[in-house]
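Narrative summary of target 7.
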Amino acid sequence: MPSTEEREAQPVLEEPCPRCGFPVVLRCWKGRFHTKCQNAGCSFGYDTDDRGNPASRCAVCGTGRMRTSDTGRACADCGAAEAAKGAPAHTGAQPARAAGPGPCPKCGKGQLAVRSGAYGTFVSCSERCGLTYSSDAQGVPEAGLCKACQGPVKKTQNGNRVCAVCGTW
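Modeled conformation, tokenized:
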């Protein structure tokens, strides 16, 4: 059995994370290689070969930093999702996004801002209207968007999901 130092030793890639500047390390999980930012609050990472080279290129921005998740494949830089046959689902126009930094969809007066807290990143309104939800570093809601109003959906304490704007369950 390898010692603790041997298991934890991970090669650090030459380039820093483009989002936060922390070192990016090469990891192997279930026989697949990927990169991961060492900053616990940053979600940057992409699929690689065993030497840290990007595994595939993004058809939209061409950076080559595609990441695989439970919901499919997406570009780590531009966020374009890949369709089932490998073609990008992103057509060049920005997707409709009522959530994230910008005007508050609930009160219309305040501005939304991505913040860091004890439980991770979240978005809240500057006018303190009560709009808060868990998000990634770009302000995209972790629970998705509401089908009725396209507002951010948040998880409740008992695991249900509710729209932060219209209250739809």
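The longest helix spans residues 4-8.
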